[in-house]
Structure formats: C-alpha cells, structure tokens
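Entry for the shared binder. Reason: the reviewer on the internal report wants the predicted structure included alongside the sequence.
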Amino acid sequence: MPRSQNKVASHRRRKRIIAEAKGYWGARSKVLTVVKHAVDKGYQYAYRDRKAKKRTFRQLWITRINAAARLHGLTYSRLIDGLIKKQISINRKVLAELAVHNPDAFAEIIRFVKA
C-alpha cells in the first residue's frame, strides 16, 4: 500500500501559518518551524495586550480627569466621591472626553458636585 502524505491539507496548513507571519523579518517569515514559534508568541502578546489596553486607557482617562478637575480646585478622588454621593453614574471614558473636548460641560459637572 502506498504511503499517504495528505499533501493538499499539509500545504494549506503551512501556507496559512506562513501567511499569518506576513511582515515578520527574516527566518521568522520564511522557515516553518521558526514561523510557528513567532506566530505563537505573537498570539500570546496579542492576548496579553488586549487586557493591558483596558488598564492603560483607564489610567489615561483618570489622569485627564484629575488634571481637568484640579483646574477647578478639586481632586480626582473628591470628584468621583461627589459623583457617587449625588448618584450620577457617568463613566470615566465619558468624563475624560468631556474634560478634553467640552470643558464647559465638565465645569458644569464640577459645579454640580461642589454644590
């Protein structure tokens, strides 16, 4: 009985893995064993950084809110505490957008929290 190699599926699988390494430099885009390792590592970084991205953006929003609140004589923590006590549910992303792009609306929120 002749040896079965399943050439079509094997070639397609290798081609797919090499296509995922498009743009990689040198052997990382050419040599199959190296490509496998590079692509696997890339997936690990992508998974990790999808989580880190959320943390990074939250830090950025908090920094922007704090800077804008301090211009009005209030700290970030006192602003958030005031919002909670007044039962205003507005997330940090929206607050940061208001602080950067619409300072008048942000100042109005600050006035409401101080009152």
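Summary line for the report: Residues 32-71 form the longest helix (40 residues).
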